[in-house]
Amino acid sequence: MIDYHIHTSRCRHAVGTMEEYLAEAEKKRLLEIGFADHFPVELLGVQPDHQVNMDAGELPLYLADVARIKGMASMPVKTGVEMDYLPGREKITAELLVRYPFDYVLGSIHYLNGWDFTHPGYTGEYAGKDLGLVYERYFHTVEKLAASRLFDIVGHLDVVKKFGFFPREDWSHLVKRTCRTLAGEGICIELNTAGWRSPVKEQYPSEAFLAACLAHRVPVALGSDAHRPREVGEGLDRAVALLKKIGFTEVAVFERREIIMLPLNIL
Ligand code: ZN
Ligand code: FE
Ligand code: FE
Ligand code: ZN
Questions:
Q1: pLDDT in tens, 67-98
Q2: Which domains are present in the chain?
Q3: Nearest ligand atom owner, CA of 14
Q4: How does DSSP classify residue 197?
Q5: Ligand 2 mean position to 248 CA, how many Å?
Q6: 24 C-alpha vs ligand 2 centroid, how far in Å?
Q7: Which-ligand-closest: CA of 107?
Q8: Is the pLDDT of residue 49 over 80?
Q9: Which DSSP string do the residues of 12-62 spell out, in sequence order?
Q10: Residue 50: its pLDDT value, please?
Q11: 203 CA to middle of ligand 3, Å?
Q12: How far is the CA of 61 from the centre of ligand 2 (A)?
């Protein structure tokens, strides 16, 4: 099994030491792991109400910690990061990303016009909104994320469903349009098992999305979005079974920001 989405306590909403995350990965005999903690958005010029990322000064320490864990591990440990895609900040994002030796960068959307719609403290805002418009805006932002060509993997692709708010009208055109764009831009997506732990109780992205990704040949990487050690590797057996059922035969890994496809049947 492979887990490319592991957080650390530096982001202030995950717990446990990196040694504990590694120990869990060793216990579950994962084939390869990657840490992908939240990049400091302050460096992108943003000051959120509620900080959910490491401090700017912690980034070098995070990189050193990943290197230290690499030295202790029996499996490959990759240096990843989860970066917020902030429309309008592409240039500074590009300048920052080249400074660090990441193996892969997850591009994630947690904010829409400054609203942290993935944060349990701000779910009240869904009530007053036209959910069709929220979905339209979210997936339009995903397309812009892909078109920016800044990232290797789209993090939790349909996380806008996290709290179980869905538009009343059919939104399957957004699935088709988004997957077409992802394919055109050559970006990979993540099958993120944290959805099963969230109120919606469904992996990110939905089966319809995964099937559309397969049809458009958009590669898939695997992640648990672990915020505590026991979550490392969680749900990934089920995720791989789902990928096989849909018809996938390969999964993506990265090295120095180059994609490598591995056969699913070795997991
Ligand atoms: Zn987080
Ligand atoms: Fe995220
Ligand atoms: Fe994450
Ligand atoms: Zn996350």
A1: 999 999 999 999 999 999 999 999 999 999 99
A2: 2-266 (3.20.20.140)
A3: 1
A4: G
A5: 24
A6: 21
A7: 2
A8: no
A9: SS--S-HHHHHHHHHHTT-SEEEEEEEP-GGGGT---SS--S--GGGHHHH
A10: 81
A11: 14
A12: 21
| Listed residues: CB within 5 A of ion ligand 2 | 108
pTM over 0.85: yes
**Residue 3 CA: which ligand is closest?**
3
Measure 193 CA to ligand 1 centroid, in angstroms.
13
Ligand 3: centre distance to CA 49 (Å): 18
Percentage of the chain with pLDDT > 70?
100
| pLDDT confidence of residue 46 | 87
| Pair type for strands 111-112 and 220-223 | unpaired
Reported confidence tier of residue 48, pLDDT bands at 50, 70, 90? confident
Amino acid at 183: A
Sign of CA dihedral 252, 256, 257, 259: negative
